[in-house]
Amino acid sequence: MKSELDTIKQVYAERENDLELSKNHSGSYPKYIVKERETVYNFIIRNQFSDIKNLKLLEVGAGTGMNLSFFRSIGFGYHNIFANELIEDRYEKLKKDYPEVNCITGDASEMKSEHKFDIVFQSTVFSSILSNELRVKLAAKMIALTKDNGIVLWYDFVYNNPNNKNVRKVEVGEIKTLFPNAKKYQFYKVTLAPPIGRRVGKLYGFFNSFTFLRTHIIAVIHK
Fold it and tell me: What φ, ψ does residue 122 adopt, rounded to 5°?
């Protein structure tokens, strides 16, 4: 029987060859959503920590490293950034493009590390996991790898996509269930709904001002 991890690998392999998906990642919409969430990440990190250059950060499911340049731009040293990736070809690209980053391959829920991290970060990883058991296991590993007084930083969507059976929403209530012993939670609703955002172009900011049209959550889980 195919494991959940094998299914995730297959889904991502199919996405790489999906021409329609490639079109969805072109145009101005992706630039707006990236800028929006990076602005929120920057606000959170600067309000939580005073000395960014000495912080250690782990990204779970780093893909090909899209977020790493941002973290470097706000003051993280690449030597303090650890990037985990399950998919082999993405991991190889990650190592090639970010040779100074500490790259770690394999299932993050089984990850062994001599380090604890000030920030453990995930972006749309949990919505790709359909199994409740694996979600719980990965969340437990993430909080275990977080330093006392550190944070889990989270970006994912809170509504199901009726056109994609390979993903599943993660609502605020589930986040709290996944991290039941957190000292505090903070939530920021972001990202204009893709069907709207891809059509409105430069009017992204206007439509995004209506918070009920936003589909994703940035969460800060305080250990």
Answer: -140, 140
CA 130, distance to chain mean position in Å, is 16
Domains of the chain by residue range:
4-222
Q: Tell the CATH topology of 4-222.
A: Rossmann fold (3.40.50)
Helices then strands (H, E): number in the chain?
9, 7
Question: In angstroms, what is the C-alpha Rg of the chain?
Answer: 17
Instruction: Tell me the residue type at 51.
Output: D
According to DSSP, residue 57 is labeled E
The model's pLDDT over 192-220, given as tens digits with 9 standing for 90+, comes to 999 999 999 999 999 999 999 999 999 99
Cα angle, residue 113 at apex, residues 169 and 59 outer, rounded to 5° = 35
pLDDT tens digits for range 53-94? 999 999 999 999 999 999 999 999 999 999 999 989 999 999
